[in-house]
Amino acid sequence: MKKLLILLLFISIHSFGQNFYIEKIEAPVAIEPGLEASIYYVISNKLIALDKDIKIKKNKEESTYTIKCIVQRMYSPGRKGIGHIEFLDSNTNEEVLRSSTEKAMRSPFQGMKNPLELMFDRIATNQFPTLLGQLKDM
Predict the structure, then answer these.
(1) Does residue 26 register a pLDDT over 60?
(2) Between 115-126 and 33-50, two packed helices, what is the crossing angle to 10 degrees?
(3) 8 A C-beta contact, residue 85 and residue 98
(4) Best label site of 31, 34, 51, 84, fewest CB within 10 Å?
(5) Pick the residue with more confidence: 109 or 6?
(6) How far apart are the C-alpha atoms of 126 and 46, rounded to whole Å?
(7) DSSP 108
(8) Cα separation of 101 and 71, whole Å?
(9) pLDDT band at 102 (very low <50, low <70, confident <90, very high)
(10) CA torsion angle for 8, 11, 13, 14 (degrees, to 10)?
């Protein structure tokens, strides 16, 4: 009986956690490594803050889902950047979920932050709770 309880506890601990791998940002032009690192940091922190069972993996093969940040249009003075985030199945590389498209522009009201960082931070803050809930239901 004791072995059965330990086995059930072990299965319950490991079966509910989700593993994510965050890919490099796909954009029409090259993105600075510092900016890419800050976007990675924002997304990984939001994921972990939403659910303590989530783990960020360094290898795609070890993960359940892959997060892909896509920039559809780069920002420029007077022009908004547009992008979204896709959740892919790591084994098949097929799209499972997609966030809605977000726009961002450099503004003094937002501390002159980079529009790409603002855009992906908004997606992570506003849309990740519902997207992660949909992933758990799959």
Answers:
(1) yes
(2) 10
(3) yes
(4) 34
(5) 109
(6) 10
(7) G
(8) 10
(9) very high
(10) 180
The residue assigned the tokens 């519902």 is 130
Taking the CA atoms of the chain, what radius of gyration do you get in angstroms?
17
The candidate with the shortest Cα–Cα distance to 45, out of 100, 99, 111, 125, is 125
Burial class (CB in 10 A: 0-12, 13-18, 19+), 28: exposed
- DSSP annotation of 102 reads E
Local structure of 16: helix, strand or coil: coil
pTM: 0.80
Adjacent-strand bridge partners of 22: 67
Give CA 95 to chain center in angstroms.
13
Q: How many other CB atoms sit within 10 Å of the CB of residue 4?
A: 8
Give residue 2's identity as a one-letter amino acid code. Answer: K
Token pair in block for residue 24: 């490099």
